[in-house]
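Ticket #4471: structure output looks truncated?

Reporter: J.K.
Steps to reproduce: submitted the chain below (311 residues) through the standard prediction queue, then opened the result file.
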Amino acid sequence: MKRCLLIYFTGTFNTRYISKWLAQRLAKEGYEVTLYEIDPLKTEQLDYSGYDLVGFGAPIYGYNAPWPFLKFVLKQKFPKGLRAFIYKNSGETEHENDASSMFFLRKLRRSGVIVENEYHFIMPYNIHFRFDERLVREQLEMDAKLMEILVYEVSNRIPNIKKYKLWPRIVTFFVAIQFIGGDINSFLYKVHKERCTKCGLCVKQCPTKNIYMNKRGEVKFHHNCLMCMRCSLYCPTSAIDIGFLQGWKVNGRYNFAKIAQIENKEPVITDETTGFFKCYIETYNYINSRYKELFGDKPADTSFIHSFKSM
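Returned output as attached by the reporter:
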């Protein structure tokens, strides 16, 4: 049996969602899949022997992979000739995101890892503004098609990775300042006492243990923040103020299983779409054309969207 290792970091659990979905699909193709979720507080050397394939998954933070993901990959020792692919996700598909894998892809290739494929999944925002659930339903439909494309191409060793153009590389390089942005912004974090129920969810969920409760039962913050937005998205009473980004805060998780039940009678994104979501037109057109090229009119497998109820 072929073996695949999926290494990923997740902030608000979108990448975990995609990774579990991907593991399920690869299993149907005969792979034995191991999931490894990166813990920002530890870096261990993994044993890659015996794996036929490794997938690297991460959200895009400020046109880059998150710092814990980069740190983990940069410290790994990979065997030469290891086959790999990249799957990333964000709520925006403009070309400035194209080179977001640049820093760790360089490490992989210098280590002799053969990276043949890269895919960008569309997921709803955890920051900036909340996505309409009809749009999220459409995103998941596109992701289902992209998932089929990924599994087919990777399983059949069909390369699908583009050379990064100069402008996205420049953007990725200079916006890397976001690696320290969370630490600086965390000096401004606060909790509204009148809303806080002291449930401790933010303390328990924070991936870097940046949040703690003092002796008086007040929620406080250290200064080791990734700006993953897990605390502000999942706070049941929207009690957390996230400093400079407060005006962009999104509160309340997206229930994908529930959203999957929505019936979209008309497309949300069309060729006439303007503004922020205009970048989706090119993304949708590519996914639809490539899917049709590979699978014709066969419906994409959306069973995972309907069945997955929690992160």
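Triage note (M.O.): checked the attachment and the full token line is present. The mean pLDDT is 94.
Status: closed, working as intended.
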